[in-house]
Every structure is written in C-alpha cells, then in structure tokens.
NADPH oxidase 2
Amino acid sequence: TWKWVVGPMFLYLCERLVRFWRSQQKVVITKVVIHPFKTIELQMMKKGFKMEVGQYIFVKCPAVSKLEWHPFTLTSAPEEDYFSIHVRIVGDWTEGLFNVCGCDKQEFQEAWKLPKIAVDGPFGTASEDVFSYETVMLVGAGIGVTPFASVLKSVWYKYCHDATNLKLKKIYFYWLCRDTHAFEWFADLLQSLEAQMQERNNAEFLSYNIYLTGWDETQATHFVVHHEEEKDVITGLKQKTLYGRPNWENEFRTIAGNHPGSRIGVFLCGPEALADTLNKQSISNSEADPRGVHFIFNKENF
C-alpha cells in the first residue's frame, strides 16, 4: 500500500509548499470601495501576479482569522494594473473584513491602517474559454455575476484595442436577482459598456436581460407607468428590467435561430438547479448534424 500512497502524498506536499510560498508574498491593498447593500471592492497589487478572465483566488486576512481562507472571483480584467474582488457582507468573516478595512467608519481611512491580506492563486475556471467562441451566453445568478464583470471588462479592453482580431462577436448576458439591491454595484459597469458600444455604433454586440426573480408582474405594477421612459427606473439602463424567471426554452431557440451552424458557449455561475436546467437545454437544442448549431455548457459555483 505504501508504494501507492507515497507518490500522491509527495505531490500533495509539493502543492502545499507552493501554495504556502505564494500566500507569503506581499499583497498591497491600493483601494477599498464601498458599494451599496454592504458590498465592498478590494483593489490589490502583488508582484508577479498574472490572471485571466473569470479566475478566482483564495484570500486570508490574519486580522480577522489566522486560519480561514475564502474563495473570491476576480472582478478585474487582465488588462488592468491591479486585481480586485467584490465581497458581499453575509457572515462573520466578511463582517470582520468590512470592519478591519474601516468601512464602518465615516472618516477617511489611511492606507497604512488597512489590514494585511494573503492571496493564493489565481486558479482557473471554465469562464476562461469565453474568447474561444464567436457567440456566448453568460448567465449569472445574484452575486454569481462577479466572473462576468471580469469578462465584460476584458471584452471592452480588447474591443477598443483591436476589434478586428477579437473572435467573440456576440454576447447574450442574463442576470438573475431576487431583489433590487444586488443590481446597484454592477449596473454602473453595464451602463458604461452600453454607452461606449453605442458611441461606436455597435450596440448589438452586447444583448443583456436582467430578471428580478423575487417579483412578478403584479408586484411590479407601479413601475409600469415608467415603462415608456428612456431608461429603466431600477437599473438606469436602456434595457428594461424583466420580472419573474426567463423561459429558457424560448431563449435557446431564439439564439439557435439567430446563429445557425455555430458553436455557442453557455457559461453559468449560479446554483445547481439552474445548472441542470441550462445543461438540459444545451443538449436538447443542439443538432445531431456536426454542421448544425451546438451549445457547449460550462459552469462554476462555490
């Protein structure tokens, strides 16, 4: 038995040593941004840190806990000179991080007072393959939208730099949230992308649908009077917020009809129940003919 155990144990110990060495490298918090609904953004720098879209890191804050490591998706783009994460305050550890970063104080926080942070990673996810397709469906549920913040930022940087060499030609973005609070920090990015794409006369590049799943049409009746306004009253975007849950069968059929003979990447960051639904739709709407439309499903969740 020992012959079969020694090899894997040696590899495991090597991996632990590499992770320990990486976690000891100095990380500098350059900026802390407080977003609505108790969500904070940490912008950091680390020597030699290289990332791809959609990757995640493990974070430890010794001032909160000397042993706990927590995974967070990177929300910055590889083209930016820093890396960032968005942290929603939902438990003891995140509450402690919120406090040690001085977010509970009204006065300006000096940089030297910010806590030390240890970072391990980045680690790869399925979202890295976004740029391998001409057409993609991005589906985020709640805070699961964070990897697509990185994707959309990177798409914009690549589009501005050299749009002709960008293989990705069409993005269908779906964001599902139970309440309006979760929209507030991410809507700014969508507003910026929406305005910039219109300036370049390519508004069709990004199609997005935002669903407020905790409400239905009867609960949203008082918003109907504002439906004819240019911008949505909840998100401030031109695309109006939809209520309830999407009809995935209709969405897949419509996209398949718009892109015959294409390989379409379907990327999800969300719960298992939604993953099962999208996986079944990807299979049922893919054609048997190799020259027909094919949906390739990719998922990630913590």
